[in-house]
Structure formats: structure tokens, C-alpha cells
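agent> Task received from the user: take the single chain below, predict its 3D structure, and emit C-alpha cells. No templates, no multimer pairing.
agent> Plan: (1) validate residues, (2) run structure prediction, (3) serialize to C-alpha cells, (4) report one or two observations.
agent> Step 1 OK, no nonstandard residues flagged.
tool_call: predict_structure(input=
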Amino acid sequence: MKIAPIKFNLPASTRVYNDYMKRVKKVTSGLPKESQEDIYMEMNSHIFEAIQHNDKINEIDSLLDILEKLGPPEEVLKPLVADKKLEQATKTFNPIHVFKALALNITNGIAYIIFALLYLLLFGFVFLIIAKIVYPSQVGMYYKANTLFVLGITEATVQNGVQELLGNWFIPAMILAIVLFYMVLTALLKLKKNLNHR
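)
tool_result: status=success, residues=198
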């Protein structure tokens, strides 16, 4: 949907307005097209209504006052963009959107920091998969009755009574763990987002 720009009498007013709206577009560029258009239309509507209710005669002064009251788009829209990105991430389960949403929301509370750390733990599983390929005899899930349990890299040997539980199934098990852990974390993130909006 094409949103018509506001028409001004002075070229300076048009320039100031266009510059502000370009900044709005830039701030929202990482969002889906529909969300970008909604935010753009909302900002455009605020400016238009404020101009209609402003009794100043000078058009440029009136516009500058309105934009000053609205504030810089980079600051004003940051929470809204972070929320929309989180909504996109929890709908799509796309890892790129999830990490961008967490980066935008990291300052919105300790819960998002915890989620970011938990997502980083997923890289530990990826590291273990790579390590298993490089050092197949030293990486795995090891167990020794009542004394030792290790998921990772160890120097322990079979002679010491240590058993490797997964063997050739270690890599598929780690891939399954990554997928399950990711899905559960993202579902919990979606639940957190929904609880915030109640």
C-alpha cells in the first residue's frame, strides 16, 4: 500500500518532512513490509493531525515543533521496532530474526539477557559436533558408575571403566538436542512476549 506524503507549501517544509520520514524508513527497515508500512503510516498520521491542529502561521516552524515533540525516530521507535522484531522472530522461529530480536531487546530486562545466554549455549552443542569430527575418540557422552558423567571432551579411557554412551549416535543426538533446545527456547520467548502484553 502506497502512503501519500503530506503536501506542504514551502520547499523547506517538504525537505524537513522527507528527511524525517526517510529516517523512519531506515529505523524500520529490518521489519516485515507490513510492519514498516504500519509504523510509517502511524508517524505520517501523527504529523498530519498535529499540523491540522497547530495554530502557528509559519509552516516550517509548525513542522519543526511537531517533529521535535515526536522526537528522533531512532529513539522513539526503538521499543516498537524491538517488539515487532520479537513478534516476527517468535512467529517464524527463524534464528536470524531471533538473534536480531534479542539484540534489540537486550536492554529491556534481565529475562532477555538470560534468553541470549541460553541461545549462546546452543553454540556449545555445535562446538561438540565439530570436536567429535576432529577428535572422535575424545569427545562424547561418557559415564563411569557413580563417579563420572561427562558430555564433551575428556581424556578418560575405557581402561578406567569409563563408557562412551552414544558412540556413532553422538552427532545425531547433538543435532536433535540443538533443534529441541532451540524450539523450546523460542516457544518460551514467545510465551514471555505474550505475558508482557497482558
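agent> Step 4: summary for the user.
The CA atoms of residues 10 and 59 lie 7 Å apart.
agent> Done.
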